């Protein structure tokens, strides 16, 4: 069963989200606060594929919940719900480990498309982890283990989210090639993704903080101005 955690304090919006997800075949667990969401996560032993978190919550806000869930489970898909006018909410959520964001107000079809897309990525990663799927990719001082979803730099493990892992896999498969934002967006988020390309830039920024010695002066994930990004394993 496809299991989701939905954290939204406004009952009307939560009911709207839950009903539409249930109609689409998802098993949904509801929470009306950040504290309740973390408690539900523990009660279910973390057995969720995707979490949908509202940013504005009483008590612990959605950012903190996102940070806590991400620290417990790098493979969990996380979608943030934020007001359309709060642009910084989107960047903040993504930097804390969210995979995607949806702006309020949203249509059932938009939310479902985002959830379906993220669920497919999570399921694919889980399937790869359970099978001996092309065990490792090597690039310079880096090793990407496709089965364990792990990135190693000089033997040291770097924790990645689902999206970060897929971006790195794409880089490793195309070393030295310039990949434009549209290519990365299509490969990682899918052709049907209806969000903005800036989600690529935020994830690249987050990856640089993890893999670069000096994130502000990147050696490995290089910007090709006007085009996109290039993976240079030799730095």
Tell me the domain tally: 2
Mean pLDDT: 88
Number of helices: 8
Give a short account of the largest sheet. 5 strands, parallel
For the CA atoms, what is the radius of gyration? 18 Å
- Order of strands side by side in the largest beta sheet? 2-1-3-4-5
Q: Give the strand content.
A: 15-25%
The level-1 CATH class of the largest domain: Alpha Beta
The CATH superfamily name of the largest domain is: Response regulator
In percent, how helical is the residue content? 40-55%
The shape, in one word, is: globular
Q: Using DSSP, what is the number of strands?
A: 12
Order of SSEs: EHEHEHEHEHEEEEHEHHEE
State the end-to-end CA separation.
44 Å
Task: Look up the CATH topology of the largest domain.
Answer: Rossmann fold
Poorly predicted ranges (pLDDT <50, ≥5 residues)?
A: none
Instruction: Output the structural class.
Output: alpha/beta
Q: What is the level-2 CATH architecture name of the largest domain? A: 3-Layer(aba) Sandwich
Structure keywords:
2 domains, Arc Repressor Mutant, subunit A, 12 strands, Rossmann fold, globular, 8 helices, four-stranded antiparallel beta sheet, 23% strand, five-stranded parallel beta sheet, 235 residues, alpha/beta
